[in-house]
Amino acid sequence: MNYCPMEHIPEQLEWGHEKEISASELYFKKLSSKHQELAVVESGLVINQKWPFLGASPDRIRFCKCHGKTLVECKSLFSKRNLLPGIAASEKLIKTTKGFQLKEETTWYFQIQGQMAITGIHHTDLVIYTNKGILIVPVKFNEQFWLRILDKLHLFFVQFMVPELLSGTILRSFNP
Q1: 126-149 pLDDT per residue, tens
Q2: Which of the residues 6, 96, 118, 127 could staple to 56 if both were Cys, CB 3.0 to 4.6 A apart?
Q3: 15 vs 77: CA distance, rounded Å
């Protein structure tokens, strides 16, 4: 709710925001020959019509004639920026015979599942960026996982957000 905006953006966050652009450009370059009429565009905030208390801001949306829409989520790990992407993100990934898969217990998985549910676009390419290049990890929508999370999000909204929006109790505690 922006009650405590940051006065100074940490170097790690700035680096991540800067590298989102680099990651998107590398992603486009890597996929351009494999997709018809490829476009990778910024998304902005998407509010879900069914659950208007939920919104998501995917980093990009990929459009192509051959596959339709795919969300693109870029992650840059500042502390591991000089490692290969698969090694840098190894705590969050499972190595499979086909490449890599995102672990369900990670915050990245929760975020991406939410973005897919909220936007209605049920495929995401997770793009992991380091100074050594990018790794693209496809993530598919997991409806059962989302329904468990949705119940918790709705409960949080009703129990905590609505009372704060109506009363401003927490906001007033910052400026007594």
Answers
A1: 999 999 999 999 999 999 999 999
A2: 118
A3: 9
